[in-house]
Design goal:
Elements lengths: L24 H9 L24 E4 L5 H6 L6 H10 L3 H6 L3 E3 L20 H13 L6 E5 L1 H8 L7 H6 L8 E4 L7 H6 L2 H19 L1
Parallel strand pairs: 1-2, 1-3, 3-4
Bound molecules: iron/sulfur cluster.
């Protein structure tokens, strides 16, 4: 697949926004796999995790890999993934095996754990370096799931609410291109209890869209 970047391709894996040449999705993925832009700040070797295909129609944009995903090299191989798949109404075989489903988080490498036990936020650098090029190479995407506040703010900009809850409550405003969701982490179990409208209204809509996208 070719997309229309004018000019010549630069060879540096970390060219990022300076990249000006024609590009295929394979080119972008090769460059992302080689990226070491955060190597001096991460407490481990960068291991970019991204799962997309030229056929991707449903793109899941989360926060950043956690420690389990860092180990597995596959997105959402953790309890958050189990909950997300349950919301979507798909099993792991479909999630990982259907090329129409893709995952590209706001950062591709595990950012490490903070002293309180939570993960550090995704480094903004990753989206700035890679996201425009990657999305330009995914022309078939019809729906992007904005999972959590970082993805919502990046994609929706000033249309995002003051909080994740406010943005998710206004979910109909962003259709059909975007659907904002809370992060499926166990840390949001209390949020899900306090906001039953999410599972009553949004999850059925999500399942319907996913079924339509992967069945057509
Ligand atoms: S998080 Fe993104 S920018 Fe940083 S090393 Fe990984 S792929 Fe590169």
């Amino acid at each position: 697949m070719r997309v229309g970047w004018p000019g010549r391709r630069q060879s540096s894996a970390n060219a990022g926004n300076a990249y000006i040449g024609p590009v295929t999705l394979a080119d972008v993925l090769t460059d992302i796999a080689a990226c070491r832009a955060c190597a001096l700040e991460l407490p481990h070797e960068p291991r970019p995790v991204v799962m997309v295909n030229t056929e991707t129609r449903l793109l899941i944009c989360g926060q950043a890999p956690g420690s389990r995903v860092h180990q597995s090299g596959l997105p959402f191989t953790d309890p958050s993934g189990d909950r997300l798949r349950s919301w979507m109404g798909v099993n792991a075989d479909a999630f990982y095996g259907d090329p129409r489903i893709g995952v590209a988080a706001m950062a591709f490498c595990y950012p490490g754990t903070d002293p309180k036990g939570g993960d550090y936020p995704p480094p903004r650098r990753c989206a700035e370096l890679w996201r425009p090029r990657l999305l330009a190479a995914l022309p078939k995407v019809e729906l992007t799931l904005l999972v959590g506040g970082y993805a919502q703010k990046w994609a929706l900009k000033d249309r995002a609410g003051q909080s994740m809850t406010e943005t998710v409550r206004a979910w109909r405003d962003f259709l059909p291109e975007y659907l904002p969701l809370p992060h499926p982490s166990w840390r949001n179990t209390g949020w899900l209890r306090r906001n039953p409208w999410f599972e009553a209204e949004i999850v059925p809509y999500l399942r319907q869209r996913v079924a339509a996208l992967v069945s057509s």
